[in-house]
Design brief:
The chain has 141 residues and is mainly alpha-helical. The chain has one domain (6-125). Helices cover 50% and strands 0% of the residues. The longest helix is centred in the N-terminal third of the chain and has 18 residues, at 22-39.
């Protein structure tokens, strides 16, 4: 039996679930790797530490901002991602194809109401305060 590559499996997912671009799957996989490194090593050597949905959402937020900066929302929307639930759908599409594993406690609901995209991805790039400019005096007469 021949095993399929990650790329081949993603191509199958995209055919079955065309809602998200293939790049979104590669990105979520990279964000998962980033998150695993960020939260620390597993208890045993060579064991991969399980990442919860909330941990993954936090890692995705940080990784996405690092990768795309102020263009984050534009990139995510181009891939079909508009809310945290979309990340959950991508993850579970990969779980169904056996690209990722899950525990009995993991569910799509873990990604519901994770964070507001505007707050997470746009607000970091908005000015922290408004600048007031005095209006020029108008001459009467």
């Amino acid at each position: 039996m021949q095993t399929q590559s990650f790329e081949e499996a993603v191509e199958q997912i995209v055919v079955k679930h065309p809602r998200y671009e293939r790049e979104a799957y590669f990105f979520v996989r990279e964000a998962l790797d980033y998150t695993q490194r960020m939260i620390g090593k597993a208890p045993k050597k060579n064991e991969i530490r399980h990442v919860s949905g909330q941990e993954l959402l936090n890692g995705i937020r940080e990784y996405t901002l690092q990768q795309f900066g102020p263009m984050t929302l534009t990139v995510l929307e181009a891939w079909g991602i508009k809310c945290c639930e979309d990340f959950g759908e991508i993850v579970f599409n990969m779980v169904e194809t056996r690209l990722l594993a899950k525990t009995d406690r993991d569910s799509r609901d873990d990604f519901k109401n994770g964070y507001d995209f505007h707050e997470a991805f746009r607000k970091p790039y908005l000015p922290s305060r408004t600048i007031s400019v005095p209006m020029a005096e108008t001459k009467q007469g």
